[in-house]
Design a protein that fits this description.
Conserved hypothetical protein from pyrococcus furiosus pfu- 392566-001, ParB domain; 315 residues; alpha/beta; Arc Repressor Mutant, subunit A; 4 domains
């Protein structure tokens, strides 16, 4: 095997894992696949390391290193980098791995918190969102999402970490389930549909529905925000919204879709139809103002639309 001139071969037992690695979950099926490749071809891409206390410390290549140890390889290729500060170490870990397969969000959020603390210790202030995004080689939307994860109650974060330890094929509950549910419940609380003391029981009830596969649509909680908007617009009463939401919390088989159908689906549909009608009206006025000729296809479509409107209004 040819390696770059700056690479050297070292005993993998002389290498230590990096305590700042945001990747906390190493799924066995992924390791098995990589192990088979390394057993057949060896370690083709050198590990990146730095020297600390007489040992090599990983910057990049922990999965390759783990497989090399399991296969009892005597030597692996490494590229040695200058020893970084802790802040530089965390930043390098983010930069190296962000270009590869996405990390699990929650472990990444934990390491992002460490990055914030290290910045504050050095600079004497908290980083701005833009600074943190630059430090972690992420966009600001990703930073906000990870910070939201850190704001979840500890029990949810524990549940999600336990779920991440399972093989992907066995995972049911995801970070997106919890985040979407949290946003949906928050929208109800802002409109007074859910009291502060009811918020947690509703969130737990919906998450349990996801875990039990009663809810299967990850974005279904977004319909809770549509219920909240209907109350804000006085399209349904607060009492009616509270009634359906309380059933959602109490009935383990009652879905968000069912709650939406029972409360605001027809109003939401009618609101969309109203917007479309106003848009058609606007286009017709523009057509007249511009003195465009009316083609036969448009005329036929408008006649059909007029007939449908007449039929609709005669109901």
């Amino acid at each position: 095997m040819r390696v770059a001139r700056q690479a050297r071969l070292v005993d993998p037992h002389e290498i230590r894992e990096n305590p700042e690695n945001p990747r906390l979950i190493f799924r066995q099926e992924e390791l098995d696949e990589l192990e088979s490749s390394i057993a057949a071809q060896g370690v083709l891409v050198p590990l990146s390391v730095f020297v600390d206390g007489g040992h090599y410390v990983l910057l990049d290549g922990e999965r390759r290193w783990r497989c090399a140890l399991k296969l009892s390889l005597g030597r692996v290729p490494v590229l040695t980098q200058p020893k970084p500060t802790r802040l530089q170490n965390i930043m390098m870990m983010f930069a190296i791995h962000n270009a590869r397969k996405a990390w699990d969000p929650l472990p990444t959020a934990y390491k992002l918190r460490d990055l914030e603390k290290e910045f504050k210790q050095r600079e004497g202030r908290d980083p701005t969102e833009a600074e943190l995004a630059q430090l972690a080689s992420m966009n600001r939307g990703e930073i906000r999402r990870l910070r939201t994860l850190l704001g979840l109650p500890a029990e949810y974060r524990r549940d999600l970490m336990k779920e991440l330890e399972k093989p992907r094929s066995e995972q049911v509950l995801t970070v997106d389930h919890v985040l979407e549910t949290t946003k949906g419940v928050t929208s109800l609380e802002k409109r007074g549909i859910v009291a502060a003391g009811e918020r947690e029981s509703l969130r737990r009830a919906i998450i349990t529905k996801f875990r039990n596969k009663i809810e299967t649509n990850t974005v279904a909680p977004r319909q809770l925000a549509r219920i909240a908007r209907a109350v804000e617009r006085d399209e349904i009463s607060l009492v009616a919204a509270k009634r359906v939401v309380r059933r959602l919390a109490a009935d383990p088989t009652f879905t968000i879709e069912a709650a939406f159908r029972a409360s605001v689906e027809h109003i939401d549909f009618e609101h969309s139809l109203e917007q479309q009608a106003r848009r058609v009206e606007q286009y017709l006025h523009q057509h007249i103002d511009r003195d465009y000729p009316t083609g036969p296809n448009l005329r036929e479509a408008l006649v059909q639309l007029r007939n449908s409107i007449d039929q609709f209004l005669r109901r």
